[in-house]
Each structure stands twice: as C-alpha cells, then as structure tokens.
Specification:
Elements lengths: L2 H16 L9 H10 L4 E2 H8 L3 H13 L3 E5 L7 E5 L4 H21 L2 H23 L15
Helix pairs in contact: 1-5, 3-4
C-alpha cells in the first residue's frame, strides 16, 4: 500500500510536465476523459458511465477542456437532448502528444516485461479495478453490534 501513493504522485507529476499550454489548469481527470475520446466522439452520458463519474462531474471537466480549446460539444442530431463531445481536429496533435507523454513511463516499464509478465500485470490491474468498483458500489460494512447486557 505504500507504493500506490508514490506511483500515483509520480504519474501526476509526469502528466503535469506533458500538459499542453492552454491557459486553463488541466489535471489527470482531463487525461482520463481525453483518453476515452481518443477513439472518437461520445455522448456525455456514455463518457460519464465509462469514467464511473456523475454527469455533473464529467460536464465540469468537459467545460474546462472546451475552454482550453481541446474538445467541442454539440447536440446529437438523432436526439437533441444528448450532447456529443469530441476532440477538436485542430487540437488532436496536442492531445495525442499529451496522452502519449503521460503514459510514457508505464509504456517503458511494460516494454521491459516479457509477454507473460505483462499479461499478469494487466490482469492484476483489471482485477484490482473491478474489486474497487464493486467495493465502492456497496456501503461500508456495518460496525459490529455492541454486546447486550443480560436481562436483569
């Protein structure tokens, strides 16, 4: 458990070094959203579902990315109630560079593992993510009941 905070701090520092100049502060949550948008446009609801976040949280992050000039939002032509978001074509190169730069340390480490080790690492991370998702879905276990005094 001591290793996780160190790794996360290191990843955040590395992502901060690769952030494009936008005039808007960007953070790891923006990396996560852009990573999902990298493959193409998504509805805000789909993005929120994939990130495991509320619509309002994702909408806030997207507003910041829009303000930074990295994404554009538009009404879904098939359902005007839905909003579609995508990386701006003119910003794609900067976004790709940021995402590739942010993932570079992990890619270098994975490249040093053999195929079996890499598969085991990915499997363990998938299992951990699933466990955390399940654990966060349920309420914390109730505290044990206090012992009752015998009837007088």
């Amino acid at each position: 458990m001591r290793l996780f905070p160190l790794v996360m701090r290191g990843i955040r520092r590395y992502q901060d070094q690769a952030v494009p100049e936008t005039g808007v502060p960007l953070s790891p949550r923006h990396v996560a959203a852009l990573e999902h948008l990298r493959d193409g446009p998504l509805s805000v609801g789909t993005l929120a579902e994939r990130l495991g976040l509320s619509l309002s949280t994702v909408s806030g992050a997207l507003a910041e990315l829009d303000q930074a000039g990295l994404v554009e939002r538009s009404a879904d032509q098939a359902d005007r109630r839905r909003t579609i978001v995508q990386i701006r074509p003119e910003s794609r190169l900067a976004v790709e560079d940021w995402l590739d730069g942010a993932s570079a340390p992990l890619a270098r480490v994975l490249d040093r593992l053999d195929t079996g080790e890499r598969a085991a690492f990915i499997k363990a991370m998938d299992m951990l993510e699933a466990e955390l998702r399940i654990t966060n879905t349920y309420a914390a276990p109730a505290a044990p009941a206090a012992p009752q005094s015998p009837p007088a």
